[in-house]
Structures are given as C-alpha cells and as structure tokens.
Specification:
Chain lengths: 228, 84
C-alpha cells in the first residue's frame, strides 16, 4: 500500500509519519509537496501535524487552499483513506471534509504529554485492530485542540458512531464531549488531535498507534488484493 | 482605493477562553464593572474596486477565508482610502 505524506510549509511531523509507515509498518510512503497536482498514484493520504503557514489567521485556514487540497478532496470522494493528525485534523476541518472547528485549548496552554484514548468505534477502517472501549496511550501536542460543533452536528456524530476516539479521564483541551477524533459520514476520512505516528514503537513509550495504521492497510488489502 | 475594516469575533454561543482569562485578570485588578470580554481579530484590507461590487468581494473573502463561520462572526465597513 502506497501512502502520500503531504508536506506544507510548516509541517513538522511529516518525518515521523514517513518513518511510521516506512520503517514500522513496512509499507510504501512518499513525501508530497503542497503544490502537487495529482494524488491518483496513492492508496492513502496522510496530513501530518505541525504549524502549516505558521498557524496564521487560524490553524489550517491557509493550508486548506493549497493546490494539493483539491486532490485530497478528490481522494476522499473516491473513498480512499484520508488521515489528518493534529494540524492535519485542523486542515480537514477548515476544508470542510469534517464538520466543526477548533478553538484554543480551554486552559490556553499548549499541552504536550501522553494521554489515554478510548476507542469508541472499532468498526472503522482506521480502528478495526482495536477493540471497543480499549484504552490506548497516544501523545498529544497542541494549543488548539478544543473541538467545537453545534448540537445538531454533535448528535449526528454521536448517533452514527463518528466519534472514534475520546479522551479518557481529564480532558486536556476542553473539547466538546471529550472528542479526540471523528470521521466523515462515509467513514474514510479521520481527523484526530493525538499523534498515532509518535506511538509506533515501545521504545517511544507506546506502540499503541501502530494498530491504527495496520487497520488502514488491512482494510485496503481486504478490498484491493485478491488472494488465491 | 477602498479601505475595508473587518472585525472577526467568536460567536456569542462559543466560549472564548482568552476573553475569559482577560476578564478574570481585570476583575483581579478590581475592575468589577467588567461584565464580559471577547477577543477578536481586526483586519484592514485595501481594495482597488473591480467590476464586482466591493461589498460582494469582501463578503466572499470573509466567508471563504477570513472568518470561520462555524465559530466566528464578522462585521465590516468600507471607506474611501486617503491616498497620497
């Protein structure tokens, strides 16, 4: 399976993402610059964390108009897995591929530590390797992860299993309903504030994030590779 | 040349963590008159009018990029810029 790691000016988790795919997961990965015009050669799209365009105006608001985003929208419409982590999540929200918006963390602090995440929905292409209500350890590192949406959207997300991850225990940023990660209606676009790519080896403190990438690959193999 | 003054603020329904912190600080300084503080952004955009009405262009820019209407409201005023 071949992944595109989209690189914006100011991305800083792109190398971690590339490493997770290439060295830990053992799949193909390529860096793709933000002005790329074609993503048709990739099976999965990864929007890494960082501070694209310095977080000017609003996090993700400028990156959302990058050339490559037209192709990301196209890939999402085609049903390809699209994962946005941290700043990648913010970009997906600004692009309208996911509903809602991010506010500053409630305590106004940049939070950088490992948190417990509850797997709320293991029946997605991103979470099939986890079990329901499993608690996994994944690092967060953000100042604007306070997810917000109106009641109608929240109910929609809740009723349709689109809230995939919530924070266990103390909510680090004040997000609505302890939301840490959500999918689109079709289930092929996931945005999450925590960094699974930073938790792919016990040496890093946790390998719990690896199962997320393995889930994506399994889903892709099951639907694209015919085994005799 | 037109000067467009745009104010972008968080919607009433959205909690403003920065504004809340500033309000607490003002209260700590004994400004008990303060009821609420909302922090927003102020933008000045210089526009050379084209064949499209300035208001139409400004509105479109606000909706697309300058404000995120999920959480923010915007207001603007257009004035003739003084050029030298």
């Amino acid at each position: 399976m071949k992944f595109a790691v989209i690189v914006f000016p100011g991305s800083n988790c792109d190398i971690d993402m590339f490493h997770a795919i290439k060295d830990e997961l053992g799949e193909e990965a390529e860096y793709v610059w933000h002005d790329a015009e074609d993503l048709s050669g990739y099976d999965g799209i990864l929007l890494p964390g960082g501070f694209s365009y310095g977080d000017y105006l609003r996090s993700g608001s400028i990156a959302r108009f990058s050339n490559v985003m037209k192709e990301v929208v196209k890939a999402a419409e085609e049903g390809k897995p699209v994962l946005g982590v941290c700043n990648g999540f913010q970009i997906l929200l600004e692009a309208g591929l996911l509903p809602g918006a991010m506010l500053r963390n409630k305590e106004l602090k940049f939070m950088c530590r490992t948190v417990g995440l509850v797997v709320e929905n293991p029946n997605t292409m991103f979470t099939s390797a986890y079990s329901e209500n499993q608690v996994i350890q994944i690092p967060i590192a953000h100042g604007e992860g306070n997810y917000y949406c109106d009641d109608a959207v929240y109910n929609e997300l809740k009723e349709n299993g689109r809230i995939v991850f919530t924070y266990e225990g103390l909510n680090p940023n004040g997000s609505l309903g302890n939301i840490a990660g959500i999918t689109n209606a079709k289930g092929n676009v996931l945005g999450m504030m925590p960094h699974p790519e930073r938790a792919v080896d016990a040496l890093l403190g946790s390998a719990d994030g690896l199962s997320l990438f393995q889930s994506i690959v399994k889903h892709w193999r099951d639907s694209n590779v015919i085994t005799a | 040349m037109m000067k467009v003054k745009i104010h972008v603020t968080l919607r009433e329904s959205v909690l403003d963590p920065q504004g809340t912190a500033v309000k607490s600080s003002l209260h700590a300084m004994n400004y008990h008159e303060v009821q609420d503080v909302r922090i927003g952004k102020y933008l000045e955009v210089m526009i050379e009018p084209s064949d499209r009405p300035v208001e139409e262009v400004v509105k479109e820019m606000c909706e697309k990029l300058l404000a995120n209407t999920v959480i923010e409201d915007y207001e603007y005023e257009v004035e003739e810029a003084v050029t030298r």
